[in-house]
User: Fold these one by one.
Assistant:
Number 1:
Amino acid sequence: MAHTKTHKDPLLARVRRIAGQVAAIEKAITEEAGCAVVLHQVAGVRGAVIGLMDELIEDHVREHVAKPGLSEEARAEGAEELIAAIRRYAK
């Protein structure tokens, strides 16, 4: 995926922020924070992961499905990869 190489730094920054959010959840549980605090943190992580997935899906569609000049074979392969990822994500 060439687009992940091109956008590597911003993607890694997002992943690192998510890792920090997960670490904060672990710390909150370890320190016996209130359940409302933990729930809000988990909701934040879920939103961050959804945002990351949205960005990756958009980039994939642009590069592997809708990009002008792709062969029909490459376009079909890109579509199948996307369908498989969405099915797995939706479970």
Number 2:
Amino acid sequence: MNSARNLDVAIIGAGPAGLRVAQRLRGTGAAIRVFEKLPDVGGRTATETVDGVRINTGAMFVYRGTKTDELCRELGISYEPVEPRTFGMHVEGRTVLGRRAEDLADLLPISDAAKNDVKQLVESLSAAYRAHGKDLAGADHLATISLSDFLGPLGDEARELIWSAVAGACVGTPDELSAKFGLRYLASFLVRDSASRGYVPEGMQSIFDGLYEQVRDLVSLNTEVQEITANPDGTWSVACSGATVTADHVVLAVPGPTVPDLVPGLPGWKRAALDAIPTPSQTTLGAVVDCTDRPEWADIFYIVTVGTRFHGVTQPRTGSHFSPGDRRRTYFEMFRGRDSPDDSVVVEDWLEDFYRVLPDARGRVTGTFLRRWDAAFAYPRHDRDLYLPGVREPVGTMHFAGDYTSDTAGSHGALTEAERVAEELRARLGEIGTRARA
């Protein structure tokens, strides 16, 4: 295996965080290289083309007012406003849609007690969201309690409904999630907030393809890093693709659970901090459907499902900008966290459940795409603030950036953390100067 000492900064991962760090360090004079094991950039923002339709397989939306929104403006990437018109629930084989989530309970095949619980839940979640806004400004106290604590005791039927809704919208469970995070995502579905989300027609990955174009010469695709070890002089040996590169600084911009595998010598305190930031798996199935004579489907945005193999169904392209009258195809996304079966049975079984939720879709599916994410979404627990200092703390000159080090989540959290780490590195590089290289 060849060895060379030729980098100031080695960045592992060409997802949102890795690309943003590289872009922010460009122009410092530092020798930088981004290592990405896949043939494409963007990480969990991956977009695929199915039957001519661009479908997102991980991250779905640009959340307004976030770092992802800022990056879109910076790159000149436009998006369409997502304008939810309905909220839906599927229980006991019955799907109901309503303009007001508060009205759905009476239509569901559940007991009167459960209907009352659901109404109270919707009212309390919606009221809190409207009071604090989509950023939950002034609601920091909600970050330190669980969503379960906020919701209070529930009967079994209502509990099953809310657990499915939360698992679909947020991946985690109400016991795990902070109330602030749960409110931001789940309640925005309930109130059909049209000022919260944007949809990029070319797909989420196009944002990071645009960022990649600015740092293309710094990125090595199809280059898997096998191991990173510390050297006696404080540098790092990065073993990858038959060679070892020595770097003064390393940035781990990969999913949190993969960090210990890449760095076997990681200190125990760092491993413990990473273990406290859950990043569970998720499976998504995108189904492209012919909607030529189904204009009513334009009103579908999100349907919570109980008793199906997935937790929910969303049509991300909803609102006046995505009217079926202007197109022949749309797509629906089904998703489930953690305990998904083998690929061989997922598509057929999930489609059967999809037809239970939306019977008119049978015979109209023109293509599907299944995606498994082993580490999908580092959702904020209610005790996340206790562990973030340890997760963010460098190990020597090794730095950590991603949604797992953020106090929010998703691509916007990863970008925020990338800017934090890039600023730290710029300061360090400025202090020590960049080594002259042959």
Number 3:
Amino acid sequence: MTLRIEYVHAVEILDSRARPTLSVTLRTTAGITVRAGVPSGASTGTREAVELRDGDQSRYGGQGVTGAVAHVNGEIAKALVGRRFGSAAELDAVLIELDGTPTKSRLGANAIVGVSIAAARAEAAARGQELWQRISETTGARPLLPVPHFNVVNGGAHAANSLDFQEFMLAPLGAPSLPEAVRAGAEVYARLRARLAAAGHAVGLGDEGGFAPAIDRPEDVLHQLVEAIDDAGYTPGRDGIAIALDPAASEFYRDGRYLISGQDLTSAQLIDRYEEMTDRFPVWSIEDGLAENDWDGWTQLTARLGTRIQLVGDDIFVTDPAIITEAVDRKVANAALIKVNQIGTVTETLEAIRICREAGYTQMVSHRSGETEDTFIADLVIGAGCGQLKSGAPARGERIAKYNRLIETADTHPELPFGLTSDR
């Protein structure tokens, strides 16, 4: 199988936060046409691959991506059109070499990742496969329908409220199937809305579809979630619906201290607070519990809670194979968040997943706060057998598109296992 590229073209479109991003169209000489929408984050790690933004304040407040679009339509298209590639990985290698920077800052990670996702789709189509099937073959992983993690309360950089923690998620670990997991998330989401409204809270939505109530203390949100789970007729806990947190601690880390709800905490004091939350509430996973540069704190957090709950590195790892390798050596965290635009190509993303798997680290595939209707991550999480996907609340079209892709795949491929691991 070879890919001969006939056409590559990008256009500036809008993401779910009304900010510009790219849509990339790629066509092969065999008549295969595919498209990819590029996601964009609000809460980002400093070591992420670099998006290229125009900086022209006269349009979109400087956030335009016409420069990145021009790179796709110019330099990247010139390097790809007319060439034959034995695989999407070969094409990714050309993109990496063409950019020539460690962070993809010359051409823009947003330009490169759109072409990379489109190439992965074209390769699967050329082989007559679903995208997840091709990813499974590439990685050697057994395909797996994941447990969805629904972000139902937003704070931090994702909402205009005073809640410092960024995401509170529902994880239907005890669901018997993917469709039942989605149903559970949607039903609890509805009950949570009713509870918040009854308490006088606004029920407007944050960037990822979760509610953004005027609640300061994370413990108060956790209480509301447990009550909503119970209201909906489910069991709070790992046998039913558990809770996952993404405090995004880098966002409230200042001069070596953590500023939460008016409190000024050391790393050790914040770890104590996480342990208390884990004791009181059915919290099974904490992502970015400490800041990206607080490596000593992460070591302490992992030693204290790493045998009890999942500790996910996001800003600290940025889906970078080299950083994840260092974290494994230093016994930091026990899981990694996987975001393809953090590293910039599908090939490097799959390498990060491979390193995690070999080290015994779990993986949670993730959307970004600025999304499109593109469903690539749903195929990625199935094909790579990661077992966990977070794509926001069970609301808003750009979030629901991913969950619906999972439901459709579960329906057309009933042989696929569901759960955190394929041996469930």
